[in-house]
Design goal:
The chain has helices spanning 54-63, 65-69, 74-80, 85-101, 106-109, 129-138, 154-164, 180-192, 245-248, 251-263, 277-287, and strands at residues 2-18, 21-35, 38-44, 118-119, 122-124, 144-148, 169-173, 195-199, 219-221, 240-243, 267-270, 292-293, 311-312, 315-316. With 325 residues, it is an alpha/beta fold. The longest helix is centred in the first third of the chain and has 17 residues, at 85-101. The chain is globular.
Length: 325
């Protein structure tokens, strides 16, 4: 087995801003596994919120390089690395390689139904109310808009977005940017404006407050939910969980988390970091039947992998076999 790791950057179509900062490019790590003239690929996005960097994730991959070269299995990988981006890239590359060597598809290997197109949210970057209203109007044909909030002026931003896109379903993502008081103030406004879901309103370390306050609209755990072990701490606080492969550590754990969450009574949202079609490809398998899909990473890019996943407006097709799976 030959393992090749590269650090790649893809330009964004425009600066993307959330409550924690802004970026103008997607910095990703690409893993390529080669065996018997077959190649499998995976992509991950190191995320500083979880203490990750390009350097730390590369070091994690290097720590298992010899074991991977000697034939480490996907099951062995789950215990060799923690949930996170390094394991994600390796896990997805292993799935891709296994499918290609067996002349089949990942969905068949995983015992899933053949994937169908899904409808994704389109994310509006955090900005001034006027600019967010213009962005909402530009994308008002999208059936779902996800709005980045998390600071002073959020009520004005939300009203501006609703004015710009009166017919779109809205998801609000505060990225841990609100206090309990701010959430209580925002909740009736979100109800008034028809927000369908609010994502991670409070910091993960402070979300116990959700047990003691009214939750008049559904709340989704993002930073509070990483893998199956996270679920025990979410009951009574959240109605949805957001599954991201960079948090779960790959497709293997993502599928396990989806099954466990549904059995526990949670609704499922499937999300992504700002990344390419290669990162979206395995996530589309998890997104089948999900209540909310937020896999718009490629729509935010000025450049993408070849061949990319096809989008018809908000409707994304499963990945072409030449890309992954």
């Amino acid at each position: 087995m030959i393992i090749t790791v590269s650090n790649d950057a893809f330009r964004l179509a425009q600066v993307f801003t959330i409550s924690r900062g802004s970026r103008s490019e997607a910095k990703v790590i690409t893993v390529k596994l080669e065996d018997d003239d077959f190649s499998g690929y995976g992509e991950c996005v190191p995320y500083a919120r979880y203490g990750e960097s390009l350097e730390s994730v590369n070091a994690q991959i290097d720590s298992v390089r010899d074991a991977v070269r000697d034939g480490m299995t996907r099951d062995e990988l789950q215990s060799a690395l923690p949930a996170g981006t390094a394991r994600n890239a390796l896990d997805c590359a292993m799935w891709d390689l296994q499918a290609k060597k067996a002349n089949t598809s990942v969905w068949m290997l995983a015992g899933l139904k053949q994937p169908k197109p899904v409808t994704s949210c389109y994310t509006l970057s955090l900005d001034t109310p006027d600019k967010m209203q213009l962005a909402a109007a530009k994308h008002s044909a999208m059936p779902w808009l996800k709005i980045k909030l998390g600071g002073d002026g959020d009520i004005e931003r939300l009203r501006a977005v609703r004015a710009g896109a009166p017919d779109s379903r809205l998801v609000v993502d505060a990225n841990e940017g609100w206090s309990t008081d701010a959430y209580v103030q925002m909740a009736p406004v979100m109800l008034e404006l028809g927000v369908a879901l609010v994502e991670q309103p409070l910091p993960a370390g402070s979300d116990a407050a959700l047990l003691d306050i009214d939750r008049p609209l559904p709340i989704c755990a993002d930073e509070s939910c990483h893998d199956v072990a996270s679920l025990d701490h979410l009951h009574g606080k959240y109605d949805y969980i957001n599954i991201k492969l960079d948090k779960t550590g790959g497709l293997t754990e993502a599928l396990a988390l989806k099954s466990a969450a549904e059995q526990a009574g949670f609704q499922v949202m499937v999300g992504c970091m700002v990344s390419t079609s290669l990162a979206m490809a395995p996530a589309v398998l998890v997104a089948q039947g999900a209540a909310v899909v937020d896999l718009d990473g490629p729509l935010l890019l000025a450049e993408d992998r070849e061949p990319p996943i096809n989008f018809d407006g908000a409707v994304m097709s499963p990945a072409p076999a030449q890309l992954w799976g």
